[in-house]
Structure formats: structure tokens, C-alpha cells
Amino acid sequence: MLKTVLSVLLATGTAIASAATPAQMLETYTIEAARQTPGFQPSAQRGAQFYTKRFAVSEKMPACATCHTDDPAQAGKHVVTGKTIKPLAPRAEAARFTDPAKTEKWFGRNCGEVLGRECSAAEKADFIKFLAEGA
To answer: What share of the chain is helix, strand, coil (3-state, %, to 5)?
Structure first.
């Protein structure tokens, strides 16, 4: 997946070495999702539903909101380690979704723990749209 995102970043002219913005990350995932589903448009509403949806994979981490709280503009706490987690919403944590490699790393870990699988490009686009524009 990281290889695909990096390829999309290169194809769209975004320099990997430079910092991205949430809007650029959203565009990257939207392009990838549209390749898989022509006409795809990200939705903050679907992103919000995804954020709060309970998946049956883990009793300890059934949803994103389990660790990140119901308000993604607030700090969260990892339910297993107890470690404080900075807010997910870029308006509350300016560094969110500004590093493509870090973004993919955390999508990989969190999607695996909560969903039990990799998140799709469409899910990532909806998630970022919700956090960047609606949360």
C-alpha cells in the first residue's frame, strides 16, 4: 500500500521529501480510490461513520473513537498501553496528515488493529475529509 501511495504522490508531482498537507493527502487517496471506483468522491459523512463504527475484530479496540475519543479534536489515550495520543483533527494538531510515510504507517497499524485488515483508499480519503473538514 505504501508503494501505491508513494507512486501516486510521484505521479501527481508531489515531492515525497517535502511535507504534505491534509488536502494533498486527501487528493492522493481520492485519486487512488477513483482508479478503483470511477467517479469516487470523498465524503466527510462516510468518514464520520467510519470513525465511530464498531468493528467486531477486537473487544479492546472496536472503533477508532475507542482510543481517539468521540471528539477527534481532543487528545486520546491508547486503551492497551495507556499512552496519550495527540488529537487526530488537523485543526487541533497541525502535524496530522503532513507526512505521507507517517500517515501510511499509522493507517497500517490502526486499520490492522481495529478493522483486522488494510483500509481502502476510499476509507482513507473519507477519514481524512472528515477529520480535515468536518471534525
So the answer is: 50, 5, 45
Domain count, the chain: 1
What's the rounded mean pLDDT across residues 44-71?
A: 90
pLDDT at residue 60, as a whole number: 82
Whole-number Å distance between alpha carbons of 47 and 22 = 14
Q: Is 89 exposed, middle or buried (0-12, 13-18, 19+ CB in 10 A)?
A: buried
Query: Which run of H or of E encompasses 16?
Result: none
**Cα–Cα distance measured from residue 128 to residue 33, given in angstroms and rounded to the nearest whole number:** 13
pLDDT digits (tens, 9 = 90+) for 85-114: 999 999 999 999 999 999 999 999 999 999
CATH number at residue 101: 1.10.760.10
Domain that holds residue 103: 2-134
Kindly report the pTM of this predicted structure.
0.83
**Alpha-carbon distance 29 to 27, whole Å?**
6
